[in-house]
Specification:
6 helices; mainly alpha; 2 strands
């Protein structure tokens, strides 16, 4: 893998942070009741959708950290989930400010992780068990692509839920970051 491929993931990490900051700022005026209102989405509410995204990011980062290559940014304390929590837990971060701080911290971790990553890591084989215990093996770059695509997918759901609540997030296009 060449450095340009890695630079693409670094760009996606910057986009990830930029969009998360905009998304959380758009959610702020709604208040807790509106953010947690059941809206018929896959994860129900805006708050639960954003919680899932944070927890799933941690799950994937834990998988990346479990490979042969070690990364200082991906330490155990940073990746730890609250006791009894998995990637779909609704009550992991009931406090909005705590969820928002955890998101901001994790976005920083993702950028630091990619800053220390070497391009050859992307072509290595990733070995892990999925959430059902099925063993998986594929190139790291495929998991990285999924990691960032998953974020975009659920942020798209969150922006739809915000639109239903009368909030316009504004431009979400990746190219707008440029």
């Amino acid at each position: 893998m060449d450095a340009a491929f890695l630079d693409n993931y670094r760009f996606l990490a910057r986009y990830n942070r930029w969009m998360n900051q905009r998304l959380y700022a758009a959610c702020e005026p709604l208040g807790d009741e509106e953010r947690k209102r059941e809206r018929g989405a896959f994860f129900g509410s805006i708050h639960h959708t954003l919680t899932h995204l944070l927890l799933a990011d941690r799950l994937w980062l834990h998988r990346f950290a479990s490979q042969q290559t070690r990364f200082a940014a991906l330490d155990a304390a940073t990746l730890a989930l609250p006791p009894g929590v998995d990637y779909v837990s609704i009550h992991a971060y009931p406090d909005w400010a705590e969820l928002r701080q955890a998101r901001d911290t994790l976005d920083d971790v993702i950028e630091r992780w990619l800053a220390e990553m070497k391009a050859d890591f992307l072509s290595s084989t990733m070995l892990y068990a999925n959430t059902k215990g099925v063993q998986r093996a594929h190139p790291v770059w495929q998991a990285m692509t999924h990691f960032f695509n998953h974020q975009t997918h659920h942020r798209g759901q969150a922006t739809t839920l915000l639109a239903q609540a009368g909030v316009d997030v504004g431009v979400t296009d990746l190219i707008a970051l440029v």
